[in-house]
Amino acid sequence: MAIVDTHPAFRLAEKHFKNRSTAALPALRGLPASLCLPLLDLARPAEEDEDSVWRAGWWSNVYSSEVPKAKSRKRRNSPLVTDEPARGDRPELELDGMQRVFLADGKEGFVVAEGCVLVPGYLDIEQQKAFLLAALAEYTLPPNPKSLDTHYSLPPSLFDAYSTTPELLIAPKHLELDETERNARSQAAAVNKGPRTLVETAPASKLGYDEVKRRNATWTGDDMSLKLGSKTAEALMKELRWANLGRVYQWSTKTYDFTARGNIAFPQDLEDVCRTIVSDTPWGDVYKNVPEEAVPKYSTWADDYKPDTGIVNYYQKNDTLMAHVDRSELDPARPLVSISLGHSAIFLLGTDSREDPPRPLILRSGDVLIMSGRGRQAYHGVPRIMEGTLAPHFLDADGDSAEMRAAKRWVANARININARQVFPPGFTVNDA
Ligand SMILES: O=C(O)CCC(=O)C(=O)O
């Protein structure tokens, strides 16, 4: 009897790119149309030798967990890259039918899905380094919440400790509990242990401000783990998964915190970059082939787009981000601006149904993807951080500050995504008392 695979197409594509169970890297070409659309690598350099994806053997289909070692120069920062792999031929770039747009600053963008524009290499090398440092050293500082806060009593700057005293031992928060509190929490955890309940994920645009605020009132924070041991600053920096910028997002309820507690300033450097790219994008061209009823009111974005929230995702080489839709913002069509730094990644961009095969894109360091309009309802995810693809400007260089050396040490095995959104439409009065 034939075995029928009942996974939706998006899930099958995720499994394909995630797969580490065999010695071969996942194939990037010749993929069946039932699994995904042809892969796009829009930021690849013209010269093969400058292409870190090709250099790392991604077009060879021959996996080498030890990828190319530089012959003449010791690359302390390329642990994912050692012996020369069989590299294979780079395929021709298939851009047939791909709509190009030109930003006001002359940069070229590609409309990769409805309302979604990828601008390859939007950030130059200096901007990439500055955002790398900001993402690690600044965006992780209080009051910005981050994934480790619930569980560890962190020093004021974890990155500073990683940089200067990596062996510093950091204790888990549960050790601060007295006996009574510990017992109460462990009993509550045992009661809550049953099957996980599905969290209501209705879009905020449908729930409305008042309902979200009502839900905020019931939120008691995430549960601290009662089992963790102490870890070094070095180890914890590698366990960091996210930091929250601006308006606070409550992961367990999938809503923003609309109370005063959730009102945190959004970083100015990030706001500037996001506002510039949104105002420079020719939205009339982006939406020229879209049915009128699906075209958002983009004409004011150049003036009134103002990101007020964001997430920094920190990926180690085996980390993935499963298919999801971001729909907790009150206006579901305003742009979400997403910046890639460090190793390249496979990004899957689908439709509003997980049954449709997604489009795989290679996102390289410096690329910026903007999602808007109905494209904001598209499932997307990151099934693979691509081994061996660190851009050379993240390798050690003479003259690097101690902080930059630490940032490069961290990114040697990692990728960062910084994304920004606008929760409140312009003119919306926030009553966050
Ligand atoms: O890492 C990425 O490029 C995407 C991140 C993302 O989809 C998200 O944070 O919602």
The CATH homologous superfamily is named: Alpha-ketoglutarate-dependent dioxygenase AlkB-like
Q: What are the distinct ligands in this entry?
A: 2-oxoglutaric acid
**Total of domains:** 1
Q: Major sheet: size, sense and barrel closure?
A: 8 strands, antiparallel
Radius of gyration: 22 Å
CATH architecture name: Sandwich
Q: Which structural class best describes the helix and strand composition?
A: alpha+beta
Contiguous uncertain segments of 5+ residues: 63-82
Oligomeric composition of the shown chains = single chain
InterPro entries: Alkb, AlkB-like, AlkB-like_sf, Oxoglu/Fe-dep_dioxygenase_dom
Organism: Vanrija albida
Keywords: Dioxygenase, Iron, Metal-binding, Oxidoreductase
Pfam family, one: 2OG-FeII_Oxy_2
3D structure, described in words:
- This protein has a single domain (10-28, 40-148, 241-421), classed as Alpha-ketoglutarate-dependent dioxygenase AlkB-like (Jelly Rolls, Sandwich).
- 23% of the residues lie in helices and 17% in strands.
- With 433 residues, the protein is of the alpha+beta class.
- The N and C termini lie far apart (62 Å).
- It has helices at 9-18, 52-55, 125-138, 158-164, 179-191, 204-207, 209-217, 233-239, 268-280, 283-286, 301-304, 402-411; strands at 99-102, 108-113, 116-119, 169-170, 231-232, 242-246, 249-250, 255-256, 309-316, 321-324, 336-342, 345-349, 359-363, 368-371, 380-385, 414-421.
- The longest helix is centred in the first third of the chain and has 14 residues, at 125-138.
- The model is unreliable at 63-82 (pLDDT under 50).
- Helix 4 (158-164) crosses helix 12.
- The strands form four sheets. An eight-stranded antiparallel sheet has the order 1-2-3-14-11-16-9-6, with helices on one face. Strands 10-15-12-13 form a four-stranded antiparallel sheet, with helices on one face. A two-stranded antiparallel sheet has the order 4-5.
- It binds 2-oxoglutaric acid (AKG).
- Pfam families: 2OG-FeII_Oxy_2.
- Keywords: Dioxygenase, Iron, Metal-binding, Oxidoreductase.
- Residues 306-418 form the Fe2OG dioxygenase domain.
